Amino acid sequence: MLGFDSHDAILLTISSCGGTLNGRVTVQKLVYFHTINIKEFSPHYTHHYYGPFSRVVASALYDLSAFAFVNEIAHPRFHEGYAYEMTEEGSKYAEAASSEFPEENKQIDETVRTCKAFCELKPAPLSYAAKCHYIVAKQGGGEYTVDNVRSGGKDLNWRISDKDARTGIDLLKKLRLDK
Amino acid sequence: MTSDGQRHFRHKAIRDPLYGFIGLSEIETRLIDTPAFRRLHRIKQLAHTFIAYPSAVHTRFEHSLGCMDVASRMCDELNMDKEAKELVRLAALLHDIGHGPFSHLFEGVVDKRNHGIDSSHEAISRVMIEEDEDVARVLGERRHRVAEILGKSAPEEDALASSIVSGSLDADKLDYMLRDSHHIGVSYGRFDLDRILHTIRKNPEDDTVCVDIRGKDAVEGYRLGRHLLHVQVYHHHARLVADKMFLQALNAALDEGVIDENFLKRGQDGDDSEFLKFYKSLDDSSIYEMIMRHNSDSMSKKILQDVRHRRLLKRACDFTSMELMRNAGVDRKLVKMEQDDFDSMAREVAGELGLEAHQVIFLKAEIGIKLYGGDSIQVIRKEDVMSLSQYSPITAKSLVIRYLVYGPGDSGTRRKIADKIAERLRVPVRIISYQD
Asked: Among all residues of chain B, which has the CA nearest to that of A79?
């Protein structure tokens, strides 16, 4: 049996979102939260201008689109740029993955539900939260305060306003990832 | 720029097939004469592409000069001052100084032997700039800032400089696309460089390079050119297999002890002097020589001889992800397979057919992402900054994964290989086989 990986995480996330998800940034940041919640799942996130970014996740999204498990729909003039829509084959894939990894699926559902309630899955608040978590993790797990986040952000060349830091920390609290 | 400033960068002029003459300052002239930089003259820009396109033998040396020239013009268009321009030019000139033999091929080999230590050519470039005695002597204290500009986390005040040298629309790509097209003799990679240079702007949101909306179509030409170069040149089936065979030879040479792998390990305690000493002795020819001159009748020598005499493996299968989905459907296992899994499958098939392990190659190549993927090129209209895809009429889905399986020259053996692969992937052989 193959272990739980980024392909599974992405398809289960899109499935939890009702079959469609807007934006590459949204995919990256939701999967980032899963890496904190799900044991032995670490697609190696690194520092990127727009927040934590994983090449492994980007490549898995590419695979899923290349095999038409998801349709990548380009939206010129639409802010998110791309939307990901699960195909019929993708639904079968997600179904198989959810029965193979029920605990992981439950966790993904919960994360998506919380983020949806908080910000309708808009990329910016998800990015702020992911940045806040990444910064504090880099500091070795300090306190989630605006000052801590802003000063740690500077070291990574992330310009984070007080308001953005507060939004990020609030979402992490809702996700219970602020410990 | 004052005439004094212009004279500063005209200490020496070097003829270039693309830009006429490239001017160099005194420091730049001294830098290109250091042994570490001269080494780039012996590293081909496009590894084994010459096997498919015979004139693709231009080197990292002229590309580095070209990159510096384009970066310099970008600085002028962005009204950067002399000091900033000087730094950008130095960073552009030295951006590839850490390349190993056969460009990106060697990078993977070094990376495998340095877990947890960044061993990309960019990282090695930074180490060379900081620690190579000759380079450090010429640059003095400025070497730290130049290395920082080439780093992943350049300081905020160097965001623009860093974006000119390494960004989504940087001097590196602008030069290599034109240069590769020129030397290979293809027109796929040509685009309107002057129009792009005239329309680049500083992105007010993050101080990186972006393009005025009036340059949008020139940038579309650049994106399309990049895509076509990938499809037609960088992913040419003969080049891919020659590169892979060379890698097999190199890995065999390391296993056989023809090359001591300890020399490829970066200093664990931060002392890279031994590593650098060996690394700087390497170039395209020296690697070939090391393997070919070795006395033993080694596997590495045998494989390399095949590359040298263009006795390349031939295609047994050539298919794409969409062909599989349309005609056979695939299970989750195939989607999750990485190159290492395909390597194991190739070895198994070779074993079952009584062939040597290196005689079957299974490659996964990603095509299409260079055109539309990771769309981070920003355009600016009045004060509004947006990604190019939001304006582009040609933004569309175009993702393909291409799979190539190679085997020995005789078609009977390659048919057997295709049968074995089809069996493992659980798809009809007619869909994946290269031969009729």
From this structure: B390
Distance CA B226, CA B230 (A): 6
Q: Are B367 and B237 in contact (CB under 8 A)?
A: no
Per the CB < 8 Å rule, is A47 touching B153?
yes
Q: Do A62 and B389 touch (CB under 8 A)?
A: no
Provide the residue range defining the domain that includes B68: 3-237
| Shortest distance, CA A8 to any CA of chain B (angstroms) | 9
Contact B329/A89, CB-based, under 8 Å? yes
B319 and B229 share a domain?
Answer: no
Q: Which of B207, B237, B267 is the last residue of a domain?
A: B237
Count of alpha carbons within 13 Å of B197, Cβ hemisphere only? 17
* Number of domain units in chain B: 2
State the best of B149, B330, B390 to mutate against chain A, taking most chain A CBs within 10 Å: B390
Min Cα–Cα distance to chain B from A96, Å: 9
- Alpha helices of B293-426 — where are they, by DSSP H? 299-308, 321-327, 332-336, 339-352, 369-372, 411-425
Alpha-carbon distance B402 to nearest alpha carbon in chain A (angstroms):
10
Is B260 among the domain residues? no
The CATH number of residue B201's host domain is 1.10.3210.10
Domain match, B45 and B184 both: yes
Domain ranges of chain A: 6-174
| Pick from A49, A62, A74: CB nearest B389 | A74
| Residue that terminates a domain, selected from B237, B257, B282 | B237
Q: Are residues B226 and B374 in the same domain?
A: no
The complex scores an ipTM of: 0.77
* List of chain A residues whose C-beta atoms are within 8 Å of the C-beta of residue B156: 157
Rounded CA-CA distance B103/B105 in Å is 6
Smallest CA–CA distance, residue A143 to chain B, in Å, is 24
Task: Identify the residue among A27, A46, A63 best suited for mutation to test binding to B, counting B beta carbons within 10 A and taking the highest.
Answer: A63
| pLDDT by 10s per residue, chain B, length 436 | 446 667 788 899 999 999 999 999 999 999 999 999 999 999 999 999 999 999 999 999 999 999 999 999 999 999 999 999 999 999 999 999 999 998 788 888 888 888 777 878 888 999 999 999 999 999 999 999 999 999 877 777 899 999 999 988 999 999 999 999 999 999 989 999 999 999 999 998 888 899 999 998 999 899 888 888 988 899 999 999 999 999 999 999 999 999 988 888 888 677 888 889 999 999 999 999 999 998 778 999 999 999 999 999 999 999 988 888 877 667 778 888 888 999 999 999 999 999 999 999 999 987 654 455 445 678 887 777 877 766 665 554 556 788 999 999 999 999 999 999 999 998 899 989 998 7
Spatial contact of B16 and B66, defined as CB atoms under 8 Å apart: yes
Rg (CA), chain A: 16
Residue pair A57/A6 in contact by the 8 Å Cβ criterion? yes
Asked whether residue B58 falls in the same domain as residue B187, the answer is: yes
Q: From CA B89, how far away is CA B339, in angstroms rounded?
A: 38
